[in-house]
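Minutes, project check-in

Agenda point 3 was the complex the collaborators sent over. CS summarized: three entities, 952 residues total, and the question is how they sit relative to each other. Sequences were read into the notes so everyone works from the same version.
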Amino acid sequence: MILEVDDLRIHYATQGGTVRAVDGASFAVPEGKIVGLVGESGCGKTTAVRAIMGVLSENGRRAGGRIAFKGRVVDEAATKQLLWRDIAYVPQSAMNSLDPVYTVGRQIAEVLTKRGGRSAAAAKARAIELFDLVGLSDRRLGDYPHQFSGGMRQRAAIAMALALEPSLLLADEPVTALDVIVQRQVLDTLRDLQQRLRLSMVMVTHDISVVAYLCDEVVVMYAGQVVESGPVREVLARPRHPYTMGLRNAFPDLLSDALELVPIYGGPPDLGATLDGCRFAPRCPFAQDSCRAGTAALADAAAESHRSACRRDNEADQLRAAAMDPATWQHS
Amino acid sequence: MAALVELRDVSKHFPVARTLGELARGQHPVVRALDGVSFDIGAGDAVAIVGESGCGKTTLGRLMLKLAEPTGGSISFEGGELARLSGDKLKVFRRQAQLVFQNPFDSLNPRFTIYRAVAEPLRNAGVPTRQHAERVADAFRRVHLPDLERYLDRYPHQLSGGQLQRVVLARALVLEPRFLVADEPVSMLDVSVRAGILALMREVREAMGLTAVYISHDLALVRYLCERTIVMYLGGVVEDGPTDEIVRRPRHPYTRALVAAVPVPDPDQPRAPLPIHGNVPDAREPPSGCSFRDRCPHAMPRCAAEKPLLRVTGKGHYTACHLDL
Amino acid sequence: MAAAASATLPVLRRMAAMPLRDPFAFAGIVIYLLFAIVALTADQLAPTDPMEILFTKAGKVAANLGPSAEYPLGTTNLGRDIYAQLIHGTESALAVGLSAAVIVALVGTVVGLVSGYFGGWIDALLMRIADMALSLPFLPFVIVLMGFLGAETSNIVLAVVLLLWPSSARVIRSQVLTLRERAYVEAARVTGASQARILFVHIAPNILPLSFVYAAIAIGWAIVTEASVSFLGFGDPTNVSWGMMLQDAFSSQALSRGQYAWFMPPGLCIILVVVAGFFISRGYEEVFMPRLRGR
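CS then shared the predicted structure for the full assembly.
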């Protein structure tokens, strides 16, 4: 495991009190794999990644939990050392974070000389190499960001993140703002990078189609907690947590025969409030009294490394069958 | 069925700032947001307009609602040309054609209560005030926000995205329009909420017999809403046909690429490699002839010389391509 | 989410609550209130006529007296009560400042709204006029105008308005340009709202805080301008103002005589009023642009 996150808790101090944005999330990233961190807005996926990078906003703090990179525990101070050199980060809308007054080539070279301590000549050679790696022509190194399309800017942001040969790349919604064709091109580039550089990746996204296309493993988050994790194939084909089942039904599929999308009733809970029991219970068609009383730990299910945090996990197969029927999700 | 909306050779060119050279040569460069678009929308139809950013789909939606004027061609609604509407006739049109926006967080005046926002169209249309409460309540029932009192006095920032989009839809429906344009109505919403809004849009369309246009970049989504899909590329229509056909047997090379690129939530589904490369060209200098030819894997000399027109390639299916499809 | 919610909170309520959150703006408002009270009760606070030449009991002109119980700040070289001049100077300072502020905000807002919303030739015309006004050199223009129209306080206000409306109009115009593209404004158009309704109900309320910012800025500018013009000797000779006091003090060499009580108080008052205006405008800028908060 290149990255292990154990019982991570992140609290934000807001005017309305403490918001537990991440509340006991655990997951791991195997060496050389792409892990998709999926969930809806406010589920804590971006916060979790920002905590790993040590770039939480000012009112946020780590309230507990352990983060380990290559077996070494990383505290808040140590993350600064790892940044760029070992772990690279492509933040949300990184493509808009390039400085408009410098050429893209110069910005990449600056990372290499300032942080990487390389000579100007070595930096230039490396910048050409990086552009090639992400599928950009090195003739464009002298261009300014506004001369790039959205997809090209996103590639440049990825190239910059990879400048110092990190072994782990954290990317927050790297293809969300892109058009489908460009999105596919960038996804193909990311997969190519993973294979060529044996790069490990965490990909934060709300889009399970993107996860299905790119990722090896998936971690599903809901209301600050991990509700299900495992190999993508396993989790998407045989989801064990009702939230994942619901997401699957709600997600448009170009090739399925179903002609209806099924919504999940209601919305996520307020993370500023004290929450008892399973957080998904108020929206879950299978919730029982015991679900409201207590949570279930993320437990290994029948299949290896496929884990689900559901009290009714032993009935997962029956629940999945019932979940296929849109009527199940109809709110009375 | 008679067409409710007719577009004939519609163009919208935006002037752009000239370079010194262009100034000296007396040229007036333009961005061709739309170039020669023609199609009909039958009364009661649900039509999707699909394409990537910059293809002109949003501009087209604005033109159909007379929020902007075309620079060429004509658009008519119920046989009356939009460009000629003014005064009372424009008021009648405004009552019949409505819009649902992409961003529900920006679609409502932050200083208006929900009631005031939904009643605003009634006020503008001159509906007597004493009828407002009842008609707002009707609209709320339509969008399944029945517990009125909970929402009416609130401000937009107190509602979730899904609730807001229902309110926006209620405002669009409160005048009981005949024609609805929805520009990416769910792209800002969370997945679990999205499905509910889509189902709702389908339901109200059927219940009210609305003619609807859905503008979207997401082919996978419009499949759940529309029987007919129009695919646009660089300001022009490249393919127009039954949605199911477009998704399963796309004819135009661009549509094929689009379909191939859409990710599906099933990891077992084999994905063909993307058949095209490169980026959408600058709309200031589109290629001659077929605007897609510089990225098309099948481009031939004819494509540079002659702009392909839409021709019949199936039942109710039109494609603008020189290839033998 | 929390930030987004506070950003959309009705602007008026945030405008009203602003001074409570921003201690500097609060101080600015307190300073203005104090000056306003002084100006309104000037005749009670300083019953002596500020222009009256006073005589000592011995029958001599009471010139250049130091501070005493009778004349808290002493007298001028012509035997006038400095304290009375300072108090009555507040009146004219506030009259100049407030009238300039109201007119600048009004003209700037109307021009900005019309120009930004309607665009086209109206916009081009108004903005070219604004450009011309912006290119005028400040003090020379005021002095020339006073020369043409006469050395009256109202002409100083006119000059300040002519010079300051363009900057407020330009900023408000650019704000209107962005507001005009907001989806809810478009929505109002689709539902058949009239131009006037869109302009005054959907757009104008959102630029009100900006008008306030420029009004607050104009107060300070107007008072400084009046002081500068009076100090240079082009002011209204019949009007008691802080600038006139400084001019008197300067020309009678009060500085070399060490009559601090003569020139320090009006100087401090000018500084206070200008700083208070700056604090208030800064506070409203933050109401308008929440992103500035916490910087």
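Noted in discussion: DSSP finds eleven helices and twelve strands in chain A.
Follow-up: revisit at the next meeting once the mutant set is ready.
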